Structures are given as C-alpha cells and as structure tokens.
Amino acid sequence: MMATRALLIVAMAIAAVLGTSHGASYTVGAPAGSWDLRTNYTSWASGVTFRAGDQLVFKYSPAAHNVLEVSKADHDSCSGSKPLATFTTGDDTVPLPAGGVTRYFICGVPGHCDAGMKLAVRVEAAGAGAPNAAAPSPAPVAMAPRAARPPTTSAPSPAPVAMAPRRAVRPPTAAPTPAPVAMAPRAARPPMATPGAEVPGASGMPAVPPPSSAAAPASVGSPLVGLGLGAAVALMAFY
Questions:
Q1: Do 115 and 125 contact (CB within 8 A), yes or no?
Q2: Per-residue pLDDT tens for 97-106?
C-alpha cells in the first residue's frame, strides 16, 4: 500500500516537472511594456490564456519596484502586509503548476498598487486543450469519378409538311349590262289651229274668233274637224 502511494507521488512529481518544462512562458506586460506604472495589466491578462505548466516572468528595476503574491482580499485593497511570496531580483520567474485557480500579484512599493501595478491571473487546467496545438487536418475525401456523359445528339429536324395547293381564285363575274328598252314611237300630233286666225270670207271681212269654250274641243280634234268648224264659223259670219 505504501509502495503504491509512493509510486503515485513520484508520478505526479514527474508530471509536474514535464508540464513545467513544456509550458509557455509569458513576460508580464510584454510586448508593449513590463512590470511598471504605464501598463494596464487587466487588459494585458485578458488577452492571454494561462494554463497549468505555464510561467510568468516579471522584469523591472529592483530599485523602483518589487513583486508580492497576495490573497484576493489584499489584491483588491492593495495591502502588502501579509504577502504569500516576495520577489525582488528584477527578473523573477513564477511557475503556474496548478490549474483551476487564480493567482494575485501587486507591487509592494507604497502607492504603486493604487496606481495600477496589480495583476490577477486565471490559470486553466492543462487538459482543457492547449491553444498552440493545431487541430489535425481532416483526411482528404476521395471523390468518386463521375461517369462521362455521352455526347448529346441533336434532335433530327422535322420533315417539311406538304401544303395543299390552294384553289385558283375565280375572277369576279361582271354583271351583264341590261339591254336597252325600245320605246314605242309616239304618234305625231297634227298642227293645231291658232285661235284668232283670220279666215277670208266671202265679203272680205275678218272672221270672228270663236269663244273660249269652243276652242277647247278644237285643240283635241283631228284636222278635219278643225277645218269643219272653221267653215261653219265662216258661214255664220256670212249670214
């Protein structure tokens, strides 16, 4: 039982050493600064993921600064009366062997912590996945060759459709001109006796014109009737 525990402790120690030797090293405030009064350490720490086995390196002037590891309460209140560890060389390396914890550091020179020289580092477990480990590239997927398509033959042109011959258009039939109608000749009327014409009598006296009522039938009678009437009128005038 004791031998098993001893082996377990040795294995844990070896793992801690290997993890420390293969962890990343971060210079506090780099690359723009170091452990000084100008660097914003809250912003710097937010851009780095710390894991178990990494280490911090504090570079500064020993005459001007130092490094104290403190509790969270002393970190928040900038109190250096009860430090957990003290570093004063100006080139201090602080290992971060355990994951799942937060480490707190301040400058112990009066007024420097209040001026911003304070650092909180959250250390993740080593098994959470190293940021530098590249994800394995997926194996290329072999694409099955596509079957070559046969050349597309053009569709045959449709046979020309025979058009039925059109019927000859008949010329318009001219309507027959009506034959002229022969008019029956009218009978020529005999010349009418002029009323009031002088008829030579036996006494050489002019004849008296007949009354208007007697002239009407003369206009429609035949020439012989007209002559007879004229003779009668002449005889009446004579007697």
A1: no
A2: 999 999 999 9
